[in-house]
Amino acid sequence: MAIPLAYVARSLAARRLTTALTAGGMALVVYVFATVLMLSAGLEQTLIATGQEDNVVVIRRSSQTEVQSGIARAQADVVEALPQIALDAEGRPLVSKEPVVLINLPKRGTGKPANVVIRGVTQAGLGLRPQVHLVEGRMFRPGTAEIITGRSIADGFQGAGLGETLRFASRDWTVVGVFDAGHTAFDSEIWGDAEQMLQAFRRNGYSSMLFRLTNADDFDAVKHAIETDPRLTLEAKREQRFYAEQSEALSKFISILGTSISIIFSIGAVIGAAITMYASVASRTGEIGTLRALGFSRKAVLTAFLLEALLLGLIGGVAGLLAASVMQALSISTTNFQTFAEIAFSFTLTPRIVVASLIFALGMGFVGGFLPAARAARMKIVDALRAA
Amino acid sequence: MTADAQVGTVDERREHAGGAPPEPLVAIRNLSKYYLRGDQVIPVLVDIDLDVPEGDFVALMGPSGSGKSTLLNLIAGIDKPSSGEIRIAGVDITQLSDADLALWRSANVGFIFQFYNLMPVLSAFGNVELPLQLTSLSRRERRDRVETALALVGLSDRATHLPNELSGGQQQRVAIARALITDPTLIVADEPTGDLDRTTAGEILGLLERLNRELDKTIIMVTHDPKAAEKAHRVVHLEKGVLVH
Ligand SMILES: Nc1ncnc2c1ncn2[C@@H]1O[C@H](COP(=O)(O)OP(=O)(O)O)[C@@H](O)[C@H]1O
Ligand SMILES: [Mg+2]
Prior knowledge:
A: alpha+beta; 13 strands; elongated; B: alpha/beta; 6-stranded mixed sheet; 10 strands; about 35% helix; disordered N terminus; binds adenosine-5'-diphosphate
């Protein structure tokens, strides 16, 4: 009982230039919409991937980040003695007590300073992060002023490349290795020997502790033990949760900003679609009259023109998504204002973003097409035929 | 409820009528149509009475602006009168709702227009098939019917052509095939030869004659052309909205 889809699609195809321009406008909006969501998804994914399921991070209670946190040596000893902590081959607990410091380094090219995380790690700290592996050079030797740098630090900061020298904490540090952390937050860190860092930065205590559970289900017991011990003013979090929380604010900020911008832009695209559809209705008044005379109902006419507008939106949506998907090849770096540290991540196109973008595009088509379609459906047959 | 069910077939009506003379296919009583411009009333049709028996071929003539198209549109159910009655095959179509009227048209009326009114983006086949989209026929049944209709108007070899690839005469033949495709009793044609040259007009009129004679279609045709009117069984004249017999 409907006007054939072939009529709808071919009418759109017949006005090639207007269709392309209108769909192009919508594609632009969908492109912005999708890339922003991809940015936020990429950030989330990077930080979530940073954590391991059975790892636990301990920081001082109510400090949001490792940099703000402090753990006294005596407190660290209490935590280290917990029976749920996994042991390595030699029977030592798999615990890494780490100083984490934020320093300022100039970027390559621009020379503009940005914050970088320096992490003091131990042999155990490396074992606890299996996603991290050296891609150039070698490991730093304990007890020396040697450091290794994450891939995006090595590429992005002056003096951070293999064989180069960085100066911080009144010392010169030689980069002996570059590591890849598989697109996690560690890619944006500099690692050195924990004891060396403590001395260089004149610290008495650590910033955070990382340990592995023998059994991931023991987390609640460990958390309870740590958070109720009166000697400790610490809190424990699953490592995955810890990093996910660090991305929440930035990722939400990007999403909200991007969605607002997209919605403002979409008003323009919707007006464009409405103008196109009004023109389409006006130029086909005679056809509308004929269809109605042949027995097609007002509802069928309304549906046909709405479908045409939806199809226009779909074309724009698919084009915008295709353009956005190209962005996946790009990796960007920005400051996570929650940790104040530089973080590198890439645009990530998820199925949810594809669906959201297409719904957004169809929504623009629907809103833009509704009034013109209603006008087409309301026409009196004789008036429409006379206009032909 | 389908339009067919409301209207009933012509044979049924004859049976119900028994021995009495059959009711004409189209029976118009006291039909008036006027437009309001401000507080001024502009009469277009005044108190029209007209009967068209089934199988008739009527030519509707008169000067420009005399109300020919308006009368034809009212009979075809695409316009509403100000007052009066239009009974077609027993149904007073002035009483039908918008949606029922659309359904009624799709089953009972075939339209032929002066400028053919084909969908420019659909092929000859697609245009002829269009009214069948409102039926429950299968794709196969639709194709068979369209092929038959195109063969009848002599355009089997032009099925895939778009309207702008056809001559005026050919386009009007596609339109005639479209008017026939649902096998309606009544065909209305508003100046069907108005845009065609003499020879082509002659061909189209010949085709209409065949529809009337061989397929029993009742035809009401508006025309300026006395040559066209000659083909009709009967000529009805309109003068400033009034029928002059
Ligand atoms: N929508 C309308 N508003 C006002 N007057 C109209 C309208 N439609 C038709 N008319 C008038 O009705 C008269 C008859 O028109 P029409 O039936 O098209 O004449 P014909 O087909 O005989 O040339 C004309 O005078 C025309 O101006
Ligand atoms: Mg006319």
